[in-house]
Request: fold
Amino acid sequence: MKKINLFIFLLFFYIPADSQKTVKINVDAAQYTGKLEPFWASQIIHPTEFLLTGWGKNFIDMITEAGAARQYIRIYNQPERAFRKDKNDRIYYDWSVFDEMAEMILTSGNKLKIVFFGMPYELALHKESVKKRPYGGLVCISPPEDYRKWEELCADFTRHVVQKYGPEEVKQWTFRCWNEPDLSGFWHKADLREYLKLYDHFAKAVKEVCPEIRIGGPALTSTGTYNKPENLEMFLDHIVKGTNHATGEKGAPIDFIAVHTYGGSGAGGGPGRQYPEVDYLIEQHIRYADMRDKYPELKDIPIHVEEWGEASGGTTGVSSKPTADIRNSQYGAAFLAAWVERHVRMQLENNRNIESFTFCSSGYETLAEYDFMGYRTLDTRNGFQKPVLNTYRILNKLDSELVSVDVDKDNHITAFATRGKDKISIIVINYQHEHPFNDGISKLISLQVKPQWEATCSVSINHWRIDNRHSNAYTVFKELGSPKLPNPMEIDAIKERMGLEILEPSKQMKGSHKINMKFYLPCNAVSLIEISKNNNPPPVREETGGKSFF
Reply:
């Protein structure tokens, strides 16, 4: 015991003075504050064509096991692969490849977000306008030569899925017109006025088949929209009062406004920012909600964040941008947790009707030469899972009822908590965006929890942790010398540490009106404290309700 006390004394003595300031957190589990939905738990399969490979199945298994996909998975419907002509030169579509992908997603327990993307060459106005897909494939990104044929393509797809899966199922999906039409690599000359035509005919076709299907657009680029908000404003103005290119009437139907928002640009900071920031991500959400709310007709239309991540530039790695390392380390884990906390707080304080966030791990577009290149992926070449997946595992443990949390004013420490019938879950985050290499100070946390059940109960306490030493395969990889070609023993050693790990053995505690804990939380670390009511308490050593432990 003396050795432990000496260790704690030395730890306290050698940690920088700023970290010795205690940050107090008070949780009142008896005070319900709102409902929590897993808004963070949707993913993008990118590239779509890989879904039917062994990689695709493994990826689906990984993200569902981790709780990273519990709502939606987004794919392209790839009409260029479905286009056919019969012997009489009549156009028809074979959507069987799409169906294979849809079945995989539905079997995983998720619903579909479908992007209508790709113009069959036979329908294209500019056949030379193509986008190179991963590993040599080409997709035409031209407007159609005849918009009536584009409209029929959209209608044919909609009829197919309604007939095959049923209208009640498909009404739970979302349909979106194109991807990032303000980017010349996705849409011919980034002509947004031409895109309005594409959207109008898409909307007419889908709604005529099934009016209840939810449709949206325009999903412009994150930095592009931030720098040129007039592009989104032009789209919103057209939706409300423009002349519809398909019907000639005023305006166009829409069920959600699709946006892309990232914490930074090109694996670095956003405009005028040195590093990626959760604050920048939230600022974009608020700006776009403000733009929507200028139109009374759109105030009830939700904003769907159809792509998000720590920073754009999915295949920009550490070799060209050192800050891309945030996508390897515990920084990514803290970023996700801090963003979820900020969005939860915004919902409680001033709900702006922003929902359905879809994470984009587009770093798989380029085959990685080695592990932990800094690409925007959830795992690496050899299947080493990144720390961010453990934040999804932590979030997956939460219940649906938010409870009151009060945190001392601090620039870095945030927290939120949920309750179940017999459990309280508290997430505490030390997110320091200005330290992308995780070299900031630790913080001493003093946590006080008031349970929602009677004080006579005994409880179990489990403390899960993501930091440099826990739930972090990347640290092990670096300690092994960052091997370009890890041997079987190194692979096993790295994989052994890539799951969610507990900070210390489970503790049993006698009942109390309040439960007190103290612990240090390193820079860009995440803790989950689970306090469970013991209905059948095991006969183990107990701690008093007021005891602090590390």
In short: The radius of gyration is 25 Å. The chain is about 30% helix and 25% strand.
